[in-house]
Design a protein that fits this description.
Layout: H1 31-42, E1 44-47, E2 59-62, E3 69-72, H2 78-87, H3 89-92, E4 97-104, E5 107-116, H4 119-128, E6 133-136, E7 141-144
Antiparallel strand pairs: 1-4, 2-5, 2-6, 3-5, 4-5, 6-7
C-alpha cells in the first residue's frame, strides 16, 4: 500500500462554507487548468479561487510579496498550482484577494493579488510593495514600474 500524500488531495480553503472537505475543483478541465494554460499561452491570468470569479477590468497587483512563488516557466505544472493555491487558502478566503499568475522573462509568478480600479493606485501599490509591475485586466497589458524590484522573487 502506498503512502498517502495530503498535497495530492487538496481541500477547500480554510474559511469557506464547506469546512475544508476534499475537493476536486482543481483538476484537469477545471478553471484552474484554464488559468495555467492561458498563463502559458497569453502571459497571465487572474481568478478568485474560492468563488471562481475572473475579473475582466481593473488592475491586478501583488501586495503580498511574502506569498509569491516563482518557477522556471518550462517546469510549471498543474500540481504546482494546486499546491500553491491550497497553501494560500487562508489568504484566498478573503474574497478581495485573487490568484494572480503571470510570466516575465522566462519565469512564472504565482501571487496573491488585489484588483484595484485605477492605474494610479496600482502603480503606487507596485512601488510600495517593491513589485516589477501590474497588469491591466481590460487591455491585457503589463505596466512595468520597477524592473529591478526584488520582492516576491522567491528562492
Amino acid at each position: 500500500m502506498g503512502t498517502f500524500n495530503e498535497a495530492d488531495h487538496p481541500r477547500d480553503p480554510k474559511g469557506v462554507p464547506t469546512g475544508g472537505r476534499f475537493t476536486s475543483k482543481i483538476t484537469r478541465g477545471s478553471a484552474f487548468e484554464k488559468a495555467l494554460k492561458d498563463t502559458m499561452e497569453f502571459g497571465g491570468y487572474t481568478i478568485q479561487p474560492v468563488t471562481g470569479d475572473v475579473p475582466r477590468k481593473g488592475f491586478a497587483v501583488s501586495i503580498f510579496p511574502e506569498h509569491s512563488m516563482v518557477l522556471d516557466s518550462k517546469n510549471v505544472s498543474l500540481k504546482d498550482l494546486v499546491k500553491y493555491t491550497f497553501a494560500k487558502g487562508e489568504q484566498f478566503s478573503d474574497k478581495a484577494n485573487h490568484l494572480g499568475l503571470w510570466q516575465h522573462e522566462g519565469k512564472t509568478y504565482f501571487d496573491v493579488t488585489r484588483v484595484v480600479s485605477t492605474h494610479e493606485e496600482a502603480r503606487a501599490l507596485s512601488l510600495k510593495h517593491d513589485q516589477i509591475g501590474y497588469h491591466d485586466l481590460a487591455t491585457h497589458e503589463d505596466h512595468i514600474v520597477n524592473k529591478s524590484a526584488k520582492s516576491g522573487q522567491g528562492p
